[in-house]
Amino acid sequence: MMSNSPSNDPDESRTEALARIEATERGLEQLAATVRASTSELQQELAQLRLNVIEMHNHAVSRPTPLTEPPVGGDAPEGSTEGARLVALDLVGRGVALDEAKQRLIDAFPGVDAERVLREVGATPGV
After folding, report:
1. What is the DSSP string of 66-93?
2. Torsion over CA: 77, 80, 85, 86 (sign)
3. Cut 0.70: pTM above it
C-alpha cells in the first residue's frame, strides 16, 4: 500500500510518484475508451432515429390526402351515416382537428349530424 506522505528515500519517493502517474494514466485511458464507446453508441442511435423520422415523414407524405371536396356523382347520398363514419374515422386517425373534421363532414355529407358521427367514433367526448 502506498503512503501519501513523502518518503525520506528519494528513490522510493520517485518510484511512488511514477506509480501514481502510471495509475492515473491508466485510469484516464480507461475513461477515454469508455467515452469513445459511449459516443459511438450514441451516434449510431442518432443515425437510427434520423432514419426513423425520415421513414415516418415519407410514410405520412405518401398517405392519401384528406377529403377536401364533397364527393360527387352520388358517392355520398344525403344522410349517408356509414360513409360519414368512415371519413370521420380517417380524419380522426390522421389527427385532423375536431372543428375541421366536423366542417369536412358537414360539407361532404349534407343532412348527417357531424357532431353525433364524431362522437360515435370516439372523437368528441362530451360533445
Report:
1. P--S---TTSS-TT-HHHHHHHHHHHHH
2. negative
3. no
